[in-house]
Design goal:
heterodimer; A: three-stranded antiparallel sheet; 7 helices; 36% helix; globular; B: mainly alpha; 11 helices
């Protein structure tokens, strides 16, 4: 599904180079959902952006053989001056989907009513998140990348998100970052612990959590 | 994968890219200035107004064209070349800075944004030219060139030059924070030394030799040679002008290839 070939990624900081991935090769296989664990600053979000393709490695290559989503949990890509409707149309177009159908889905899912025709900057943060999340659900991805987006909206909306995900679990996988081990256990059957530029893959999520807890001490 | 299959998938890839570029164009036209459908009209009105102001002032100052005939024709042929050189290149340079938030969506690549904006700037340039001719028609000025082929090839070459310069601008503005201002400064110098106000042939040879290296001079000479018989015979080098444009394109594309990560994250 997503394959890393000898990927090297670092950032220059005042204290020297900070290595995120040190020549890592790994295969995220289709049909399996992965959790990514790591202490703060280990580079989880950067790794997620590289999996999505919105950030590039310094060396090595990442190949995708499935439709991979953008990292969910950020709503930054939507244009503040365009209305919700225009934003949805735009995203549907770039992903080659029918704009009218996408709008229908988002209207139904996000429940923001007449705000659909208001510029995006007028949205409350809850509305913005609901629109962004509905939008990502309106597009048929085979792999959803989720960056800490478990607490969107009220509990009723959370339940809907959960149900919607459950519906597409048989044809879509998830790669998620979360600090909530409960969430990781619910969604993922394998886990990766990111530490010191190395990805440790575990076939048992509990083993990964154990290592994560050790790193956290 | 057999041959037909791979051909289908290549066709799909091309269609997907075109879909992205089309969506970006619609978004760019809507959001360039403000947030309404008339926003794109401002993108046309801006260079057009600039052109009209330049022509009005210069035609008023130069009551007598240095080369004979209508002074408006002399001034417009020069100003049009300058406007067509400046605006597309500048708009291209700002393309990524204005749209960086878009790269949250991995399907959108920097190159798509560049191409989308280049197409819009190409269209805008033609609308500005058509508007100029319509205006001259109403103002009773005969702006029809002597040689249509030289005029058309000149316009196409100048737009090519400007878009190529624009692609280099995209790369440079991602490397250097102050690039867009530096670029305006460079364009001002080129403008002042381009022979737009005075005929280069009326200047001393030493100055003319220096001016020859200014690509904008060749753009203006090219346009004027479409209006005046034998104009530009001594100075105009179409080869030099196109070579500079091609050089910018080459370095711009090389920069795009090797600094893709930098273009993505800014």
């Amino acid at each position: 599904m997503i394959r890393l070939h000898n990927v090297f990624k670092f950032f220059r900081t005042k204290g020297g180079a900070k290595i995120i991935l040190d020549h890592v090769s790994m295969d995220f296989r289709a049909g399996i959902s992965y959790g990514i664990l790591g202490i703060n600053g280990a580079g989880k979000s950067t790794t997620m952006r590289m999996l999505a393709g919105t950030d590039l490695p310094n060396a090595g290559a990442i190949t995708r053989s499935a439709r991979v989503s953008w990292p969910l949990g950020f709503s930054g890509g939507l244009h503040p001056a365009m209305t919700g409707r225009e934003n949805v149309q735009f995203v549907a177009r770039i992903y080659g989907q029918n704009p009218a159908r996408a709008i229908e889905f988002v209207e139904d899912f996000a429940e923001i009513g007449s705000y659909m025709d208001e510029p995006y900057f007028k949205y409350s943060s809850g509305m913005a998140q609901r629109l962004a999340f509905g939008l990502s659900m309106a597009i048929d991805f085979e792999c959803y990348l989720i960056d800490e987006v478990t607490a969107v909206g009220d509990s009723r909306f959370q339940q809907r998100c959960h149900d919607e995900f459950a519906k597409r679990r048989d044809h879509a996988d998830v790669i998620m970052i979360s600090h909530s081990m409960e969430t990781i256990r619910t969604y993922c059957s394998r886990a990766v612990v990111l530490a010191h530029g190395v990805m440790h893959e575990f076939s048992d999520v509990d083993d990964a959590v154990e290592l994560y807890n050790k790193l956290n001490q | 994968m057999d041959d037909t299959q791979s051909r289908i998938s290549v066709a799909n890839l091309v269609l997907a890219r075109l879909g992205v570029i089309y969506a970006l164009m619609l978004r760019d036209m809507r959001t360039r200035f403000g947030r309404s459908h008339v926003s794109y009209l401002i993108a046309i009105a801006w260079p057009f107004t600039h052109l009209i102001v330049l022509v009005s002032i210069m035609a008023f100052v130069n009551r007598l064209a240095p080369i004979g005939g209508d002074p408006v024709v002399f001034v417009t042929s020069g100003a049009l070349a300058y406007i067509l050189c400046l605006y597309p290149a500048r708009a291209m340079g700002m393309a990524l800075d204005m749209n960086r938030a878009l790269f949250l969506f991995p399907v959108v690549r920097p190159f798509d944004v560049i191409v989308a904006r280049a197409i819009i700037e190409f269209i805008t340039s033609f609308i500005v030219i058509i508007l100029s001719f319509l205006t001259s028609l109403f103002a009773g000025v005969d702006l029809i060139p002597l040689d249509e082929f030289i005029f058309a090839s000149g316009v196409i070459s100048i737009i090519f030059f400007s878009l190529s310069l624009g692609i280099l601008n995209v790369v440079l503005s991602s490397i250097f924070r102050m690039w867009n201002i530096t670029f305006m400064f460079i364009m001002l110098i080129l403008y002042a030394t381009s022979g737009i106000f005075v005929l280069p042939s009326s200047l001393p040879p030493g100055v003319r030799d220096m001016m020859w290296y200014n690509p904008l001079l060749h753009a203006i000479e090219w346009m004027r040679s479409a209006y005046y018989d034998g104009y530009g015979d001594d100075m105009l080098s179409k080869g030099y002008f196109l070579a500079i444009g091609t050089g910018c394109l080459l370095f711009g594309l090389l920069g795009e290839r090797y600094l893709r990560g930098k273009l993505l994250t800014g």
